[in-house]
Amino acid sequence: MSKPVKNNSLPQLKGESVVLRQEDFKKLGEFLYYEGSLLSHFVNAKNEDFIMKWVGEKTGFHRWLLFKTNYELLHRFFKGEISDRELVIQNPEEHVYFLDIDQDINWENIIKVKIADLSVDYLPLPDSFYQPGDFEPYGENLRIFLDLHFSRLNKLYKIPDAQLAFAAEPPAPKYRAGSGK
User: Which of 4, 29, 139 has its CA nearest to residue 78?
Assistant: First the structure.
């Protein structure tokens, strides 16, 4: 992971101010935790996956990097195919959000930044990869789930052809009323 900034001079952000509704995001679990969240998994109201990473603090707030991800990218990350940095850069939206969270856990100063304009100071180190055992139980369980999810894509199952079955009976005999013949 990148080295979080712990002083009053956070790198400048080049982007546009946007509104994200905090209540539209739900934390599913922690990936990394040390005296507080460092890396967490969220979903939004559309059930899209996001990662929130702590990147520094300044008097009165903590700065977080929020970016969209998906199961494929997370699986590649957990398999060691892509680094922490590539997980951010390859996100499906080609931009990230920075938000400042105050002591009351309010999201403020939300800035949308294009990947091309992202300061390297906010990116994870290029040689930072997932290491088994470093993550919290939630992260490890998600890794196992994704391994199972993607392993099933490689199996082919023969589905039996649909069969039609019906019963046919001969037509009922016709009787004439009358003579008894």
Answer: 139
Give the start-end residues of each E strand in 37-159: 37-44, 49-58, 61-68, 95-102, 107-114
CA dist 135 to 37, 129, 130, 147, Å? Answer: 12, 12, 8, 16
Instruction: Give the residue from 2, 26, 35, 33 showing the smallest Cα distance to 136.
Output: 33
The answer for residues whose C-beta is within 8 angstroms of residue 81's C-beta and 6 or more apart is none
Phi, psi of 150 (to 5 degrees): -80, -25
User: Residue 125 is which amino acid?
Assistant: L
Query: What percent of the chain shows pLDDT beyond 70?
Result: 80
The mean-pLDDT minimum among 14-28, 30-44, 73-87 falls in: 30-44
Q: Is the pTM of this model over 0.85?
A: no
Neighbours of 142 (CB within 10 A): 22
d(CA 95, CA 89): 8
Residue located via tokens 């009053």: 8
First-to-final CA distance of the chain: 100
Rounded to whole angstroms, how far apart are CA atoms 26 and 23?
7
Please state at what angle helix 71-78 crosses helix 137-151, rounded to 10 degrees.
Answer: 110
Element (H, E) at 139: helix 137-151
Compute CA 175 distance to the chain's CA centroid, rounded to the nearest angstrom: 74
